[in-house]
Amino acid sequence: MLSVLGTLPFFLYIGVFLLLPIGVLAVEAFRATDPVTFEETWSTGSITAITGGPYRRAYLGSLQLSAITAVLSAVLGLALAMAILRARRGRLLRRLVLTASGVLANFGGVPLAFAFLATIGGQGVVTAFLTDTLGIGLGGFTLQSMTGLAVVYLYFLIPLMVLTIVPALEALRPQWREAADNLGATGWQYWRHVGGPVLLPPVLGATMLLFASAFAAYATAKALVGSSVPLVTLQIADALSSNVVVGAENLGKALALGMVLLVGVVMVFYAWVQKRTQRWLT
Amino acid sequence: MTALAESVANAGGVAPGTPVRPSRRRGAGAWRIAVLLALGTYFLVPIGASIWYTVRDRADGGVTGRVYGAIPGAAGFAEAFGRSLLLAGLTVVLALLLMVPTVVLVELRLPRLRTAVELLTLAPLVLPPIALVVGVRSVLAWAPDYFYGTPVAEAMFALQRPALPWILVLVYVVLALPFVYRALDAGVRGSDLRTLTEAARNLGASWPRVLGSVVLPVLRTSVLNAAFLTVALVLGEFTVASILGFETFPTWIVRISGSQAQLSVAVSVLSLVVTWLLLLLISTLDRRRGPKESS
Fold first, then answer.
1. Between 20 and 30 A from B61 (CA), which of A21, A138, B34, B55?
2. What pLDDT digit, counting tens, does each position of A12-32 carry?
3. Average pLDDT over chain B, rounded to whole?
4. pLDDT at residue B174, as a whole number
5. What is the domain extent for residue B55?
6. What's the rounded Cα separation, in Å, for the pair A158 and B196?
7. How many independent structural domains does chain A possess?
8. Chain B within 8 Å of A22 (Cβ-Cβ)?
């Protein structure tokens, strides 16, 4: 009984600083402030508003950007992880890549945005080199676009993929490959029937994590593009900082609630896929 | 969720190396080299370009460290960076005070609660911080709206003093929970804490004594690991500080970037170096703690 009391601070803390704010979002997203009398009423106005117009575009933009970057960085990160693990004399290389991944996965946000601005931004070093020295320019590429953001997001998503997937790759026992080889399996057959199915759940889990990271990313986007690209995080910040429009605050809450719900839906889908893919493993 | 939980175990940390079957076919290495070259270029060019951007001298084309020399004296830097450091320290202390007893209790006495604690601590990993902070802002808005003139409102205002915004510490603890929990949990699981504490209890040690002389020494590297990851997180955190309107190190960088582009890039390079040093420290500690715990 005493030990249950000992965990009380933890549950209280989670209740006040995690569950309460989210719960408040869920309630206050349905409140509306009358622009004339400033009276508060129940309303689905904010919720309806965010399903259309620029807000709908922002949701779609965020979902698209995070899905594309998550899948791309999952593939590239997996390739990189396999490349360093299969290296014959790659002990040093492996250490180097893993340490660098640890650093770069934590190097998101503002500094990353400025590093890229200094590289391929308007005044960037590589931009200058390509334009002045080679005379080819960036071919219409600009950092202040969806493509530009995707290029920057990969910079912290690929290392995150490497970090999360290396333990799973290491769990693939060499004996399985040997057994498959001895039974006459080709490389493709091994990956199709043994390696692939074993790796699928962790790869899906890691991709989910990447998706959530990209979906929630705000700092990088804010520092890079201000609010010229339709992203829901940027729209939330805009709504909150607007002192002019009455009810913008409630709109921000509705947008945030929408994000939570979307992440929730993706998590439920993930749990379902996970259950299906893991069924034969047990 | 469990696979996600496990896959997160190494996020931010440095994975231990284990021997893996060497490649058998000689010709199969081409794709490896291609992958390594392409990604190597992608990852190294922005770092190299940023450094070049900050050290080149636009006047005579030479190299200068002037921009880096100007960082300590830049207006607002000392204040913002000092505040971020202080927030990081407070977040580490509070997160550990909260999580060490919880993790130890769950492991020793309440294994039934493990799933609940795990799910709750990992939730901030997928929950967008911006959604959390909008919720926090709504709660803080209650102070003038509903509690005005009461001690509750006073307390909520006290949390939001610009000089030392405690509310940031409280929210950062939530954001740091996944990393702190994973680090501590790995330490607890790898050390056979149950046997050790039972031995200590049988020898007549009191619970406080067990905590101080057995549990904490065993968890020392995990605690340090958790602390460093938390510091890295707080020093780079922008979303919460910016939405709640406080100036920390990252929001300061964004504020000055408009007028001093070179300085903002130089500070970004420095913050990469700081992150790298912090994680190098973790990896050194990881290697020192031996093969049994690093599983």
1. A138
2. 999 999 999 999 998 888 887
3. 82
4. 95
5. 37-68
6. 40
7. 1
8. yes
Position B238 in a domain: yes
B53 and B194 belong to one structural domain: no
Specify whether the CB–CB gap between A161 and A77 falls below 8 A: yes
Decide if B134 touches A, using CB distance below 8 A.
Answer: yes
Q: What are the tokens at A242?
A: 């607007």
Q: Does the structure's ipTM exceed the value 0.85?
A: yes
Q: How many domains does chain B have?
A: 2
- Closest partner CB to A219 (pick from B105, B120, B239): B239
Q: Do A278 and B43 touch (CB under 8 A)?
A: no
CA distance linking residue A111 with residue B43, whole number of Å: 14
Whether residue B288 is contained in a domain is answered as yes
Pair (B277, B225) in one structural domain: yes
Q: End-to-end CA distance of chain A, in Å?
A: 35
Judge whether A70 lies within some domain: yes
Contact B134, A256 (CB under 8 A): yes
Alpha carbons B293 and B189: distance in angstroms, whole number: 8
Mean pLDDT of B8-21: 45
Q: Does some domain include residue B223? A: yes
With a CB cutoff of 8 Å and minimum separation 6, the contacts of B48 are: none
CATH number at residue A85: 1.10.3720.10
With respect to residue A123, please indicate whether it lies within any of the assigned structural domains.
Answer: yes
Q: Among B1, B20, B33, B225, pick the best mutation site for testing chain A contact (most A Cβ within 10 A).
A: B20
For position B281, what pLDDT does the model report?
Answer: 79
